[in-house]
From TrEMBL, chain A:
Location in the cell: Cell membrane
UniProt-recorded name of the protein: Multiple sugar transport system permease protein/putative aldouronate transport system permease protein
GO cellular component: plasma membrane
Gene source species: Kribbella antiqua
SUPFAM superfamilies to which the protein is assigned, alphabetical: MetI-like (SSF161098)
CDD domains cross-referenced by the UniProt entry: TM_PBP2
Bilayer topology annotation: Multi-pass membrane protein
Record bears the keyword Methyltransferase: no
From TrEMBL, chain B:
Transmembrane region(s): 28-49, 96-115, 127-147, 159-179, 278-297
GO cellular component, one term: plasma membrane
Pfam family, one: BPD_transp_1
Listed PROSITE patterns: ABC_TM1
Family that this chain belongs to: Belongs to the binding-protein-dependent transport system permease family.
Source organism of the structure: Kribbella antiqua
Record flagged with keyword Nucleus: no
Subcellular location per the Swiss-Prot or TrEMBL entry: Cell membrane
Annotated protein name in UniProt: Multiple sugar transport system permease protein/putative aldouronate transport system permease protein
Major place of residence: membrane
Length: 290, 312
């Protein structure tokens, strides 16, 4: 048994726990010659540099605003979709709607951003032609800090909401059909049954997903942000993770220690928020992760 | 959750409702909900249909904005243009290698981790599980992981694309739950009594009984590998190793097209016209492999997500 576990554990040690040891370079001035252990300790220097940086509040704001906007806009959608699908009685119809709405989940981030690029292209894009028809002014949606967040959030909703509905549909199958029958006999309308029977069945799942979401408040869909980012929308699109990438790997002179410190700051805040959200949920909603 | 599993319940609710007669109001609500769903499904599908139609249209019709839903002036030029770019073909080949290699390695690791962790009496199981789950909540981050890959001399090799991201803890949990449910402890005990080793049991009994979960893992990892680009961005500098998605990023998003080797000015102009068109056909080419696989595995994906959500 343990022999079987050896390979996965070896992988885990190398690619998950070795990097965790490497995190100590956040408290050092890392240089390649001395290595991780040999580099001199500098305490909290890099953290102080980050919190004192003029970019600090802008990064925090961009990250949190983007995340909260995404949460508020996209959290209820899969729930509504699942409830609606559950109301439809024609099987073939609900199966087709599911097949179509899951599909974008399997498309890569690069392709999704590529689709956005061709759709909102300021000369030939279909969105541009539509605004022309309606007599609205044309402007470059991707090259505009004001529209970056909307594009990011709603394209994300397009991509994920169908697939996120699965988990709620699963919760809805556990509802005892006799509850519905009894409610019908008592004269409850369809909407009332959704409100009093279906919605409570979904609630525990929704709470758990909400907690998980709290833990990632300082992280956003980093790969997609990086892909959608350009010099024109940078003011709204620079988030903590993209900054870490730029400082640590993309820069001419990579600053490994500084970038690691910023990343660690984000991870620790995330972990703390997760624990706090979990204990609140256990107290008030009676469901939690652990 | 699939429509098939839902069906019996639905019919019962339906029968009960018919016996009492749907009120007029209920009927209106149901019709409105169905209409909204149909409209919504169309809205989700539209960008995909538009891109497909544009890729099959004549480039001049796309530029002049005549394409709304169906192809205008059918043409395959955009697809022919793909074959003029060596780098795209190389990327496609690389992605196939990464998807297959990555899926095989990751699935093997996941099964090897999932089976022992599904057995009841294994000492230290809780601790090992905690080691796995903790990595979901906290990780070393970008730079320390990069340094590890560098120290292993994996930078700029195909291994960097396959190995560091191999294991997904979520899949280990789903796989473990599958084994817990479908491989009873008694079966294992009986095999042990007959002198079968743990590994022999795993190889000869567990694996043949676990085709669905193996398929789910393979496809999940393959799609993930096919769609990934960021590991390529940070670990690779050699363009001959780039996966397709990284090539796509250059052409679709950064508008970089390799025009070297084209001397003829007229040829260059034609290329420029085709460039916009090329984006559409590339999106189709890159999106099609996962979308072709997906209807066949949808049921399994859904089951996996369900097991994970209910018992994880």
């Amino acid at each position: 048994m343990y022999a079987m576990l050896a390979l996965p554990l070896l992988w885990l040690a190398i690619f998950a726990y070795w990097p965790m040891y490497g995190v100590i370079i956040a408290f050092k001035d890392f240089n390649v010659v001395d290595g991780i252990w040999g580099s001199p300790w500098v305490g909290l220097k890099h953290f102080e540099r980050f919190t004192d940086s003029y970019l600090f509040w802008r990064l925090i704001k961009n990250t949190v605003v983007l995340h909260v906007y995404e949460l508020v806009a996209t959290f209820p959608l899969p729930i509504i979709l699942a409830l609606a699908l559950n109301m439809v009685r024609r099987r073939w119809f609900s199966r087709w709607v599911q097949l179509i709405t899951y599909a974008p989940h399997f498309i890569s981030t690069v392709v999704v951003v590529g689709i956005i690029v061709v759709l909102v292209d300021p000369t030939t894009g279909v969105v541009t032609r539509l605004t022309d028809l309606l007599g609205l002014p044309t402007f470059d949606l991707l090259g505009n800090p004001g529209s970056f967040r909307h594009l990011y959030v709603w394209s994300g909703a397009w991509q994920t909401m169908g697939f996120s509905a699965i988990i709620y549909l699963a919760a809805l199958t556990s509802v005892d059909p006799e509850l519905h029958e009894a409610a019908v006999v008592d004269g409850a309308s369809r909407l009332r049954r959704v409100w009093h029977i279906d919605l409570p069945a979904i609630r525990p799942v929704a709470v758990v997903l909400l907690i998980l979401n709290m833990g990632s408040i300082l992280s956003v869909g980093f790969e997609k942000v990086l892909l959608m980012q350009n010099n024109l929308n940078l003011h709204a699109s620079e988030v903590i993770d993209t900054y870490v990438y730029k400082v640590g790997l993309e820069a001419q002179i990579p600053q490994f220690s500084y970038a690691t410190a910023i990343g660690l700051f984000r991870s620790v805040v995330g972990l703390v928020l997760l624990v706090v959200a979990n204990s609140i949920a256990r107290r008030f909603a009676k469901s939690s992760l652990w | 959750m699939t429509a098939d599993q839902m069906a019996p319940d639905d019919r019962r609710i339906g029968a009960a409702a018919v016996a009492v007669q749907d009120t007029r109001q209920d009927k209106i609500v149901t019709i409105c909900v169905s209409a909204a769903l149909a409209l919504f499904a169309f809205a989700v599908l539209y960008p995909l249909v538009y891109v497909l139609s544009a890729s099959l249209s004549d480039p001049s019709n796309v530029v002049s904005g005549e394409v709304w839903l169906w192809p205008v002036g059918f043409s395959l030029d955009a697809y022919k243009a793909i074959f003029d770019y060596r780098s795209i073909l190389t990327g496609f080949g690389n992605s196939v290698v990464y998807a297959i290699g990555g899926a095989l390695l990751a699935t093997a690791l996941t099964l090897l981790a999932g089976f022992p962790l599904s057995r009841k009496g294994l000492p230290g199981k809780g601790l090992i599980m905690a080691l796995f789950v903790f990595t979901m909540m906290f990780n070393g981050g970008l730079i320390p992981t990069y340094l590890v890959v560098e120290q292993l001399h994996m930078l700029n090799t195909r291994w960097a694309m396959i190995v560091p991201g191999a294991l997904a803890v979520w899949n280990v949990i789903i796989t473990r739950t599958y084994f817990q449910v479908s491989i009873p402890e008694e079966l294992h005990e009986a095999a042990t009594m007959d002198g079968c080793s743990d590994f022999g049991f795993f190889w000869r009994v567990v694996l043949p009984l676990s085709k669905p979960i193996i398929a789910v893992n393979l496809l999940f990892y393959a799609v993930g590998q096919w769609n990934s680009w960021f590991n390529g961005l940070i670990y690779l500098t050699n363009e001959h190793l780039f996966p397709l998605q990284l090539m796509l990023r250059q052409i679709l998003i950064q508008n970089k097209i390799d025009a070297s080797g084209i001397q003829d000015a007229a040829e260059l102009l034609r290329r420029k016209e085709l460039q916009q068109q090329l984006k559409f056909s590339l999106i189709v080419i890159a999106a099609i492999p996962p979308l072709l696989i997906y209807p066949f595995v949808q049921k399994h994906f859904v089951k996996g997500a369900m097991i994970g959500s209910l018992k994880g």
